[in-house]
């Protein structure tokens, strides 16, 4: 695997590369401003696209933590349950096992 030299174009963010080219006089200030504006618009679009995914990740984490908490207390909950509730839990467990075998 080849390492990317620190001076390569892939390493530096787009804004830094644009600033360097502008400083060398290879593009006009108008070109620089246009490219900088395009870059900011692109960043905004990406941020808007990522936001719901981050929210979903947080919701998933919360659900998983709740599931782990309840699962860790399953034996205690079962022991404290009334006989009818235990029967329902056992029936539900067998129903889940049966649906897994059908797949």
Q: How does this structure look, described?
A:
- The chain has 103 residues and is an all-alpha fold.
- The chain has one domain.
- The protein has 4 helices and no strands.
- Mean pLDDT is 78; it is low at 1-9.
Please tag this protein with its features.
103 residues, 0% strand, single chain
List the helices and strands and how they pair.
Layout: H1 14-23, H2 29-72, H3 74-80, H4 83-102
Helix pairs in contact: 1-2
Molecular shape: rod-shaped
End-to-end Cα distance? 43 Å
* Overall helicity: over 70%
Please trace the helix and strand order, writing H or E for each element: HHHH
Mean pLDDT: 78
Oligomer: single chain
Total number of domains: 1
Provide a concise account of the structure shown.
The protein is mainly α.
